[in-house]
Amino acid sequence: DTSDKYAVYFWMYLYLWLAPMVVFNLFVGVVLEAFDNDEEENATLTAEQRDGFVDTWSDYTEDQHIHISDLKEFMQNLPPPMGFGRAYEATDRELEDEIKMIHIMVPEDNLPATKGETFELDMADIAEALAKRVQQKRAEEAGDEEQLKALNLARTDPLGEKRLKSKGLVNSQPWIDAYYDSRRPKE
């Protein structure tokens, strides 16, 4: 009977088309679940750290920008591991060295034309840079060489730098260094 023949072909092709789709979707679901769990385990900042950042930020300004002159004191009062915390009194040099380790990427338009002049930094730029710094500290403490290489590669990768520049972002460190150098007493 020819109608049975066509029914067999129909169901066979339907099975051959649907079965791989179901298996593929199951595989994708398992992979996505693994990534989701991995992201939760490796979250850069805890809720407590984020709250500490926001609370400390609000001590300095109600605005989304902080003046460069307040950055040292902000880092001093910011709870560890992002800052030093109020329990430890860091020297100006320690604060400057810690700030130099942060690599705050900012829109080029936010920086002064002349290095050494005052300027303001955006809350989101500082928060992102501190989150990366926390991730770096964790990798250093754990001795995770691969993570450290990945973090440093992202920072020193010429293609990554080109991508950031195409978005108008630059490393503010030369401006921060010049600002602190211009205010440091001559020895």
Q: Please give the number of β-strands.
A: 4
Average pLDDT for all residues: 81
Unreliable parts: 38-42
Calculate Rg over CA atoms.
25 Å
Q: Approximately what portion of the residues adopt beta-strand conformation? A: 5-15%
Walk across the major sheet and give the strand order.
1-3
Break the fold down into its secondary structure elements and pairings:
Layout: H1 2-41, H2 47-60, E1 65-67, H3 71-77, H4 92-100, E2 105-107, E3 120-122, H5 123-142, H6 145-156, H7 158-166, E4 169-171, H8 173-183
Antiparallel strand pairs: 1-3, 2-4
Helix pairs in contact: 3-4, 5-6
Tell me what the structure shows.
The protein is mostly helical and 187 residues long. It has helices at 2-41, 47-60, 71-77, 92-100, 123-142, 145-156, 158-166, 173-183, and strands spanning 65-67, 105-107, 120-122, 169-171. The strands form 2 sheets. A two-stranded antiparallel ribbon has the order 1-3. Strands 2-4 form a two-stranded antiparallel ribbon. The longest helix has 40 residues, at 2-41.
Describe the structure concisely for a colleague.
By secondary structure, this protein is mainly alpha-helical. Helix content is 65%, strand content 6%. The strands form 2 sheets. Strands 1-3 form a two-stranded antiparallel ribbon. The protein has a two-stranded antiparallel sheet with strand order 2-4.
